[in-house]
Amino acid sequence: MSVETNPKTTPRFGRRRLSIARVITEVSGPALCAVTGLLVVAIRNAGSGAGAAWGGFAALFVAGIPMGYIAKGVKAGKWSDHHVADRTKRAVPLLIALASVAVCAAVLAAVDAPQELVALVLAMLAGLAAVLTITHWWKVSIHAAVAGGLLGIFVVLFGPWALLGLPLLAAVAWSRTVLDAHTWPQVIVGALLGAAVAAAVFPPLR
């Protein structure tokens, strides 16, 4: 008598599942999501050429400097990987990111950059501050928070059609739980936090 094996429990299915989760986690990284939002808003306000320049400048401070600092820390052995999996070690890189984004917002405001771009950077600053505060006690998902914030920004900019991106946000949350980086409450709270901050900060400042 043979026993039918559930394909979802086979090692092959498990490896494929993990591989898909890793790909989603990497392509939806906070830095990439942030750069996407910056470029969309900058180009929307200043055209393809000038917009890309504004977006690239902001991306240097919002994503480039923080990720460069993290990469240097990984190389020095401070952190296990570029996701900084250990919650207790996230405070310093988050503070560096917070300072870098704050400088970016100040410079953009001083040089009369597109108002929507300044508003977006300020929303990112508020989101970082919220994540930093919660991370002191609990490992809220930064992936989900940034992805949720990006979706919230797109809803403000493009209306309800942007909600078609909800399955993508769900995929990001799923990938973080499959990789055991977070629990479902941590990704759900992260996504809701990011969206709430975006909805509260971006519209009145744009």
UniProtKB/TrEMBL annotation:
InterPro entries: PAP2/HPO_sf
Keyword Membrane attributed: yes
Superkingdom assignment: Bacteria
SUPFAM superfamilies: Acid phosphatase/Vanadium-dependent haloperoxidase (SSF48317)
Alphabetically ordered keywords of this record: Membrane, Transmembrane, Transmembrane helix
Gene3D superfamilies: Phosphatidic acid phosphatase type 2/haloperoxidase
Membrane-spanning intervals of the chain: 20-43, 49-70, 91-111, 117-138, 150-174, 186-205
Protein name: Phosphoesterase PA-phosphatase
